[in-house]
Write a structure and sequence with these properties.
Strand content: over 45%
Helix content: 10-25%
Shape: elongated
Structural class: mainly beta
Oligomer: single chain
Number of helices: 4
């Protein structure tokens, strides 16, 4: 086993991990690690990983600004044809989340759990359009179902939708 107490990835992400192969009869490389750093760097890292293809649309339409933490478990069979297994938790604290065609979500905090199949669950809270928003999601079959709830300021919503309200709306 190799126990890495501190390393750097892409110069911005602090990493610690335990890496081992428990048996050479049926060798499986396991990695149990965590990382902390700029949320943007985590998205960039995923662009060059096996997770990219199954999450391409989401990754291409997402920008994260702020700090994030990642707990990751990876299991890679070194013989045979079994596929690698991935289980990760990405935690955001006071981040800004920009998704295409949606208003920015500021002060975003919460957790996204993923596997080699993509995002499994998410629980996020933040601020947008002058109010609070909560997003919760769960993978069902081959799709991620996301439920959004919250409040918005009517003037902020009208401004984002580019609706000229004149003096007709307030609050």
């Amino acid at each position: 086993a190799i126990d890495v107490k501190q390393a750097a990835l892409q110069k911005q992400v602090a990493v610690s991990a335990k890496v081992e192969i428990k048996s050479f009869n049926n060798p499986v490389l396991t990695v149990d690690g965590n990382a902390k750093g700029k949320a943007y760097d985590f998205i960039q890292f995923v662009r060059y990983s096996p997770l990219y293809e199954s999450n391409r649309h989401l990754i291409e339409s997402t920008e994260l600004i702020g700090l994030a933490a990642l707990d990751l478990k990876l299991s890679v069979p070194l013989s045979g044809k079994a596929a690698p297994k991935i289980l990760g938790d990405l935690s955001l604290t006071q981040a800004e989340l920009l998704l295409s065609e949606t208003p920015p979500i500021r002060a975003a905090s919460g957790k996204v759990q993923f596997s080699e199949a993509g995002i499994n669950t998410l629980e996020l809270k933040g601020q947008t359009l002058g109010g609070s928003i909560t997003a919760s999601g769960k993978r069902e079959k081959d799709a991620l179902r996301i439920r959004l709830s919250g409040q918005a300021n009517v003037l902020s919503l009208a401004h984002w939708l580019k609706i000229d309200t004149g003096a007709a709306l307030s609050g």
